[in-house]
Design goal:
The chain has 326 residues and is of the alpha/beta class. The radius of gyration is 19 Å and the shape is globular. The longest helix is centred in the C-terminal third of the chain and has 35 residues. The chain has a single domain, classed as D-Maltodextrin-Binding Protein, domain 2 (3-Layer(aba) Sandwich). The strands form 2 sheets. Strands 1, 2, 3, 4, 5 and 11 form a 6-stranded mixed sheet that branches. Helix 1 crosses helix 3. The site of (2R,3R)-2,3,4-trihydroxybutanoic acid has 11 residues, from loops.
Amino acid sequence: MSSSRSTHAALLAAGSVLSLALASPALAQTTIRISHATAATSHYGAGTQAFCAEIEKRTANRYKCTIQPNVGDERASIEAVQLGTLDATNTSTGPVSNFVPEVGIVDIPFLFRDYGHARRTLDGPIGQDLLAKFTGKGLVGLAWTENGFRHMTNSKRAIIKPDDVKGLKVRTMQNPVHIQAFQSIGVQPTPMAFSELFTALQQGVVDGQENPIPVILASKFSQVQKHLSLTGHVYSPAVLILSPKLWSSLNDADKAHFREAAKVAAAAQRKKVNDDENSGIDQLKKEGVTVSNVDGPAFRAAMTPVWSEFSKKFGADNIKKIQDFK
Ligand code: EAX
């Protein structure tokens, strides 16, 4: 893992110096390099492209982007943004709590009831307070975009009840909350970067993984996984992060443009998540995946005892505030 991570870091560093090109003698144009983990045609692509188009429009082309899709090591991207060798990234919260620990609260399984609850909470005061925490960690959190509710896939068997996952080797994100939750239901979690996942599934290094429908579709997991179980065990937020180096170079008017563009990105990304949720399961069936509904209450009951640990870590009152948020 370390060699692929350093290769990634080198790639990111090589291509991502904030470049200042003179488009005409009068007009300085700054190119922003922004990465995301999945294909250009995915929900991350939709959100990131919308962000960039909006920035170009609002700044009359003084700012434009070079988008780097398929940069699957989200942790390396965040590190690069922190260092300022990459200007921005549109990432899941998978690795984020390794940088901003308080953000781990949004990764708690069965915390959000549905998309509406998650989106309203993150766009409201709770989510905005969490975004403000990025600043103390050398990152600028601009807006919550979206990855989606996560479901389990594997190559061994249909999962209906929590007992069915016992003993399976499941790749998880490099996320302490997820790792703890999976351990609590008897899964052997194998945390790894997303960039390594397809090959790990193909070679049988792990039996399964869990991701939202848009990721399962865009990353063609139907080629390496037989079973999809609609566990919806956790909402996976995503966030648009900027380097403080870029942010501090912007004047106040441009900062406002970037913030507005990030809202446009969130809307576009969520729309693509909705679209993929609507058509994705049929599509995956066509691609040969067996889709199972699960015993939802049983999964919830299995994963909630570990909440007592999360209450200690994040504060029971903070968790309750999210649950109660209308
Ligand atoms: O952000 O690592 C993951 O499973 C993420 O969901 C994926 O890279 C998209």
